[in-house]
Specification:
single chain; 18 helices; mainly alpha; 2 domains; Growth Hormone, Chain: A
Length: 466
């Protein structure tokens, strides 16, 4: 009865006791990471016309993602070593410095270096936001907090590319990065007053350099798959990168300084099964956002804006469904996690069938299923993982959720790219290539989606151990 009374307070209880300002700060951190990752989609043609380097367009995103994965994977230890407040302030400053470097770039290499630094800072901001959530909010508030995060990502998906397009149309793509530099500087200043210090520097806390080095090698292999022209080599690089990234989990168990919670590799545990489900489901979802816009423009004659809003249906469905279940109690965790994983599998099948030439309603239905898969399941998967963490592993385990998601995104994007190239995308955006890719981009990830279903059922099964 007492727990129900607490839950009934809802959002008012979440924002009480001085948590409102901290909640806004965390949402700003999520916005900075989400929007910065998406904004380059509409400004890169302008960047290329001024700085050159069309062949390296993919690295404007890939470089950002490499930095973000490495940073978010180490943000738990970063927090323990410096304290949450100081670590967050420094992360914001690094992000702002990367934005300034991109804004001042005189050639494509300086621009790409700035993107890498932005990824590092933004990854730390994102990971430290997860640490802050774990430390500031009681477990009963986590579904609402993650629903709000989902909403911010949904807004960023719509506003990020639009913002970039507005600056590009005004012939001032550099202004995007000055705008983000100012926002990040404000974030760092606010963190000084709003975040807890997080304790003194822990003796023995350090940075897991060996794990990060191996992780960087795996991510680099996957990122390289985006720029090679031979599809077989791209597939080999994706496979090699995934194997190398898997070795990080094993290596971490024997490291002097750990990057992941204990037994994160053990799929019989809540944490291991949860990370596996998050990685596989995210990887299976990436093809739609990347390849649906050019396919819709090529085969259906849609404008870039119209195609973008079709893709945005995924984010809208994610946001709406997450808010629908935000008040659900822990009793419903298993149900919604399993439903979400099954919806993801269904969405891959529907989109592979519908994207090329079925009625638009079928495409929108597939996009909605894809968004609902994460809206229904993501916050409950995260809550289960966080609840299973020991006090010792709470910082690194909560920040690792972001790293797992970003690693899944990198692997899924590269795999989708390799599948599209096999279908002829690398030879040019022709109707034949677009039609072939519209199927293979989704058929190729069905094994990942099935793995995500397995991980979700394992996470919520009675045999899973903490």
């Amino acid at each position: 009865m007492g727990e129900r009374a607490v839950e009934a307070k809802g959002w008012g209880d979440l924002l009480a006791q001085g948590r409102a300002a901290r909640f806004v700060l965390i949402m700003l951190g999520v916005w900075l990471n989400a929007a910065d990752a998406l904004v380059t989609a509409t400004i890169m043609p302008s960047v290329g016309s001024e700085l050159g380097g069309y062949a390296y367009f993919s690295w404007a995103t890939a470089g950002f993602l490499v930095g973000a994965i490495l940073a978010s994977a180490s943000s738990g230890r970063f927090s323990e070593a410096m304290g949450l407040r100081r670590a967050t302030v420094l992360a914001g400053a690094i992000t702002a410095a990367g934005c300034v470097a991109s804004a001042w770039a005189s050639d494509i290499w300086v621009f790409l270096a700035g993107r890498l630094v932005q990824g590092l800072g933004s990854g730390w901001v994102s990971g430290l936001s997860m640490v802050a959530i774990a430390r500031i909010f009681p477990e009963r508030h986590l579904p609402r907090v993650f629903a709000a995060i989902t909403g911010v990502w949904g807004v960023a998906t719509l506003v990020g590319p639009l913002l970039g397009g507005l600056f590009a149309q005004a012939h001032d793509w550099r202004g995007v990065f000055w705008l983000f530099a100012l926002q990040t500087a404000g974030f760092s200043l606010a963190a000084i007053w709003l975040l807890p210090a997080g304790g003194e520097r822990e003796r023995g806390a350090g940075v897991p350099w060996s794990q990060l080095g191996v992780l960087g090698l795996g991510v680099a292999a996957i990122g390289a798959a985006d720029v090679v022209r031979r599809a077989s080599l791209a597939l080999g690089l994706v496979a090699a990168g995934c194997v190398i990234m898997g070795l990080v989990v094993r290596l971490d168990d024997h490291g002097r300084v750990r990057m992941l919670p204990k037994r994160a590799h053990d799929l019989r545990t809540t944490v291991g099964a949860g990370y596996a489900a998050m990685f596989l489901m995210t990887a299976a979802s990436m093809g739609f956002a990347i390849y649906a816009p050019p396919i819709l423009q090529t085969l259906r004659g849609y404008s870039p804006l119209t195609a973008g809003y079709v893709v945005a249906m995924e984010s809208l469905a994610w946001t709406v469904t997450a808010l629908m279940v935000a008040d659900a109690s822990a009793w419903w965790d298993s149900f919604w996690v399993r439903i979400g994983s099954l919806l993801l599998l269904a969405s891959v099948v529907v989109l592979g069938w519908a994207l090329a030439d079925q009625p638009l309603a079928a495409v929108l239905a597939g996009a909605s299923l894809l968004g609902a898969a994460f809206g229904f399941s993501w916050s409950f998967m995260a809550r289960r993982v966080m609840a299973a963490l020991t006090d010792e592993d709470r910082a690194i385990g909560s920040s690792a959720i972001i790293a797992v998601r970003q690693a899944g995104a990198a692997a899924g994007a590269a795999l989708a790219g390799a599948a599209a190239n096999l279908a002829g995308f690398s030879e040019g955006l022709t109707p034949a290539a677009a039609r072939a890719a519209s199927g293979w981009v989704f058929w190729s990830v069905i094994p990942l989606a099935l793995g995500g279903v397995w991980g979700a059922f394992r996470l919520t099964g009675p045999a899973t151990r903490d």
